[in-house]
Write a structure and sequence with these properties.
alpha+beta; Glutaredoxin; Glutathione S-transferase Yfyf (Class Pi), Chain A, domain 2; 2 domains; four-stranded mixed β-sheet; 9 helices
């Protein structure tokens, strides 16, 4: 059986990282049986990053590579009916989500306004964690943010970037249904992975306020959540 390794859940979301939740959602929508193993330590993962899967004798990292592998090896391709233009739009959307990831992560680990609530939530749900360990993770992330670039932004400027990403996404999400019609595709799984990690978190960051104020985003997130949590 395929095994998905990803970060643990938080606030009722199956993975507190957008990339892992994207893969989880895809696997659930295509109804492929899998075992979900939650881990914190990514040091043995491909490229030192989560999520990754073990599928027989193959180990695959990177969320997009995992989805491509599942579509190819298991014939579970949510995008088989999409046009070339729709596939390209899906790629552009995923790249926008890549940018949003850094702002979302910044809001949790770096911003002094929200770090205490995020830290407390992790400690409450995962007793194996310690304050010391989370402070080390916070320091590690601060270095990542600095070299990526978002860590050099003041909070107002960082959130302006994330809100621009959310606006672009919100303008693509329809009032009803999914991004490319009545059935979800990999793009819907990707959007859900990140929006759910904002929408379901009771921490009032500027990103969450934006999602709550835009019913198309919250409706899409709720519909996807109902599908993947069956």
């Amino acid at each position: 059986m395929l095994i998905l390794f990803s970060y643990p859940e938080l606030f009722g979301v199956a993975d507190n990282n957008g990339y892992g939740l994207k893969v989880f959602a895809y696997l659930k929508i295509v109804r492929l049986a899998f075992e979900h193993r939650h881990i914190f330590d990514a040091s043995t993962a491909p490229r030192g990053q989560l999520p990754y899967i073990v599928d027989g004798d193959e180990v695959v990292g990177d969320s997009d590579a995992i989805i491509a592998h599942v579509a190819r090896r298991h014939g579970a391709d949510l995008d088989s009916g999409l046009s070339a233009a729709q596939r390209q739009l899906g790629l552009m959307l995923r790249r926008t989500l890549d940018d949003l990831y850094w702002v979302m992560s910044y809001s949790r680990w770096k911003d002094e306004a929200f770090w205490p609530a995020f830290c407390a939530a992790l400690l409450a749900q995962h007793p194996s964690l310690t304050v010391e360990g989370l402070e080390k993770a916070r320091s590690f992330n601060a270095n990542r943010y600095y070299f990526q670039g978002i860590g050099r932004f003041e909070p107002h400027d960082a959130y302006a970037r994330g809100l621009a990403d959310l606006e672009a996404i919100a303008n693509l999400v329809p009032e009803k249904g999914f991004l490319f019609g009545e059935r979800p595709t990999s793009a819907d799984a990707a959007v859900y992975g990140f929006i759910a990690n904002i929408y379901f978190y009771p921490i009032e960051t500027p990103l969450r306020r934006y999602v709550m104020e835009h019913p198309h985003l919250s409706r899409h997130c709720e519909d996807m959540h109902a599908l993947v949590m069956l």
